[in-house]
Queue: 2 jobs
Job 1
Amino acid sequence: MKALSLNQLRKTYNNGLVALKGIDLDVEEGDFFALLGPNGAGKSTTIGIVSSLVTKTSGTVRIFGHDLDKGREAAKQCIGLVPQEINFNQFETVLNILVNQAGYYGVPRRRALESSEECLRQLDLWDRRDGVSRRLSGGMKRRLMIARALVHKPRLLILDEPTAGVDIEIRRSMWEFLRKINREGTTIILTTHYLEEAESLCRNIAIINHGEIVENTRMASLLASLHSESFILDLAQPLETAPELEGYSLRLEGARTLEVDVPQGVGLNRLFEQLGAQGISVRSLRNKANRLEQMFVDLLDRPSPN
Amino acid sequence: MNYRVAFLTILRKEIYRFMRIWPQTLLPVAVTTSLYFLIFGRMMGERIGRMGGFNYIDFIVPGVVLMAVINNSYSNVVSSFYSTKFQHYIEELLVAPVPDWIILAGYVCGGVARGLAVGCVVTVISMLFSDVRIQHWPVALGVFVLTATLFSLAGFINAMFANSFDDISIVPNFVLTPLVYLGGVFFTVDMLPGVWRGVSLANPILYMINAFRYGFLGISDIPVLQAMAVASGFIVVLAGASLLLLRKGVGIKN
C-alpha cells in the first residue's frame, strides 16, 4: 500500500511564485524516504500541503488511500509532523503539550496521558515533563517535537529538517530512534540538509528542484550511478608537482596534500602501488565529500527542462 | 474522530490559560470595577440621585458587570488565538483532524468561560457596594451567554486578521470601548436628545446592556426579546464569517 501518493500537485502562491509545477510522488508503506532539495526547491511546500498547513492550487494528495480533500479527517489521522521551526507553546509544560496534541486527535485523556508518558520516556524527556517548554535545550526541543508528533501513533511520520542545529551526539541518538520506529512499522519521510543523514537512514530518495522532481529512485541505485569519488591524501613528504598515474587524475592542493579522483569500479590498491613505486608515502586518506552530496550537486547542476 | 475530546481539550487549555495568569486576567477587573462602584456609585451617585426608579449605584451594576464580560470575552479570544498564530502552535491544530467548527467552538467557549469568571467576580464586588439582586435569572443568564458568545466571536475574527500585537489592541481601544461607554452603562437612552437617541439605537451593545439590566432590575429601554434577537442575529453572522475565514485559512495558512 502507498503511504503517500501525490498526483500532479501544483502550488502557486499569491505573490505569483510557482513553488510546485505538478509533481508526482509515491512513498510505499514502511519506507524510510528522503525528500531532498536546495532551499526554495519546494520541499517545505510539499510537506506543508500534505500536512494541511499550505493550501494546494491543484492536484491530489492521498495518505494511506485517503484523499486529503474528500477524506480529510481519516487522512490527517495517519500523519505526524515534525516541522522545521519550533512551534509549540513556550509557556506550556512538556506533558501538557503532548496531552493536548493527543486530545486534538480525539485521544481520550487517560490514554493521552499513557501515550505521552511512553513517548517522553522513549525520547528521554520524562524527567522534564512538568517543566515549561521554553526552558528546554535546543536538542530537547527537537526531541519534544518528535514526541508530540508520535503521541497519537501516526502511521506516517514526516520530519522536516529534524536535526537542524543539533549536536552530533543527539543527532545520532535521534537517528537510532527513527530507525527503531521505522523497523516497528512507521513510514518516515525525511527532509534534511545533512546528506549524510539521508544516506545513512533512507532507502528511497526523491530530489526536488525548482518545483519539480528531478530524481526519484532507490538510494543504493543513486549512489551506484556515481561516476567517480574524490579522496584527499595526506602525504608524509612534501611534493613540488602532482605525480602522473595511469587511470587516476591527481591534483596537488598543498605541499603535503594530494586530491585524487577514483573512477567508479576502480579500487584504491593500484593507486597506492603506483604511489609507492614513485616513493610517495601516504599518512592518511579521507573522502573529499559525502557521496550523496556529490550526486546532489551534479543533479542540481543539470539545466531545468523549462 | 472523537469531537467531544477535541473540543474539551481546547476548552480545558483555554480555561487553564486564563486561570494560570489570573493576576492579568481576573484581578485587574476586580480593581477597576471596585473603583467604578466607589467613584460613580458611592461618591458621585449620591449627587446624581435616582435613575430609572433606582439608586444610581444599583442602576449601573448590570452595565458594569456586562461591560467586564464584553471586554474579557473579547480580549480572551483575541489574545489567546493571536498568540497561537504568533508562536506558530496554531499548526498543532491545523495538522490534526479537528474540524473548523470545533476549533471555533473551543475558543469561543473559552471566551465565555472567562466572561463567566469575570462576571461572577464583578457581581460579588457589586454586592459589597449595592443592594441589587437578580430579578430574572433566566434573562440575565441568557443575555450573559449571548453577549459573551458574540464578543468572543468578534475577538476570534480580530485575531484571524491580526498580524501584530497592535492589531489586537486597535478594536478594543477604538471601537469596543466607545461603544460600551455609549451603550447605556451609566445612563438611560431616554436622557439623550432625539438625534443621539437614534444613533445609540444603532449600537448593538445598548440592546444587550438593557436586556441584562432587565434581568437584574426588571427595567429596560429596549424590549428584551428584541435585544436577544439582535444579539442572536449578530452571533449567526459572526459565526458564519469565522467559519468561512477558517475554511479559507485567512491569516493562518499560506
Job 2
Amino acid sequence: MKSYENKLISQIEHLKDEFDSTTTKLIKELKRQDKIMARSDKRQQLEYDELIKLKTELEETQKEIVWIVGTIGEYRNKEMGNHVKRVASYSYCLAKHYGLSNRECELIKYASPMHDIGKVAIPDSILNKAGSFTQDERDIMERHSQIGYDLLKNSDRELIKIASIIAYEHHEKYNGKGYPRGISGEDIHIYGRIVALADVFDALGSNRIYKKAWSDDKIFTLLKEERGEHFDPKLIDIFFENLDEILAIRDSMEDIV
Amino acid sequence: MEQIEIEATKYTPKIFLNPDGIISIEGKSYPENSFEFYQPIVEWIDNFLNKSSRDSLSVNMKIIYFNSSSSKVFFDIFDMFEESRDRCKTTIHWIFDTDNENVAEAGEDLKEDFPTLDIRLSAI
C-alpha cells in the first residue's frame, strides 16, 4: 500500500515537473511573441511615416518642377507677369465649382502652369511680335499646343499626363473651331475647357505687346457672346456665378507695372 | 546531408546551407508565409544539429529587411542552436548596415535572449 502511494506521488511529481517546464516554455514563448509584436509595431510606424514623407516629397517635387518649367515661358515673354499663376488659380476655382474632386482640382492647379510650355519652341520674333501675325506666323504660333503635348505626353506621371492634356486642348473651342484638332463640346477634356476659359479671361484683362487690357465690361460681354461658342456654356455660368471669387484672385495676383 | 542553395527573390533571402557546417542567409525576408518558406531550412538545421557528427557550425546572417514572422522563425532557429549547444558549438555572425537600426536592434534582442550563444554583431 505504501509503495503504491509513493508511486502515485512520484507520478504526480513528474507531472508537476512537466507542467512547470511546459508553462515556463509557454511563458518564454509568449514574452517573445510580445517582444516581436512590439518591435514590429515600432517598425511599422517608422515605415509608414517614411512612406508618407517620401510620397509628400515626391508630390511636392513634381509640383515644383512643373511650376518652374511653366514659368520658363514667362521669363522669355516678360510681359506675362503673373499670368501663369492666375490661370492656375482661376482653373482651380472653376474646377471646384464644376464639381471635380479636391484631388482633381489640385492636379489642374498644379498642371495648368505648363499649358504654354510648347512656346519654348516658338521663335522670339514671333512670340514677342508687336503687330498682328501673318498666316505663316500664326500657323507657327499655333504649333505650341501640339509641341507642348508632344513634350509631355509620354510621361506616366499623373500630373504630367494632365499637363499634356491641358497643353494639347486649351486652344480648342466648344464649337469645334479651335486648334490643333478642332474637336468640340465634351470631346474636349474638361481640363482643357477649364484652362481655355481661365487663359482667355486672363489674357483679355492683361496688357500685351499687341494690345491694351480690355475693360471688364468688354470682357464679360465677350465671354457671354462666346458661351457655347468658344467656351463650355456650363463653365461660363459657373464663371459668372462665382465672379466675386474670380475677381478676388485677380486682385491678389495683379501684375506689378 | 546535401548542400542547399536557394536564390534570393523579391521577398526572400539568398540561402546557403553547407553540410561542412556553414549557414548563410542574406537579403530581405518578408514572404507571405515565412513558416512555409523556412520549413525546409529548419528541417535541414535540425538534421545537421541532431544527426550529423559535426561539432561546430558557423552562421552568417546578413539581413536587410524582415517581417515579424521571419523574426519569429529566427528566434526558433536560435532555440535549436541553444538546445544543441553541448553537441555543436555555433557561432553566429549578425551582419548589418550601420544605418539599419531595425536589424541592429534585432541583433541586440537575439543576444539578449540567447546569452549562452556566441552571437557577434558587426556593422558594416
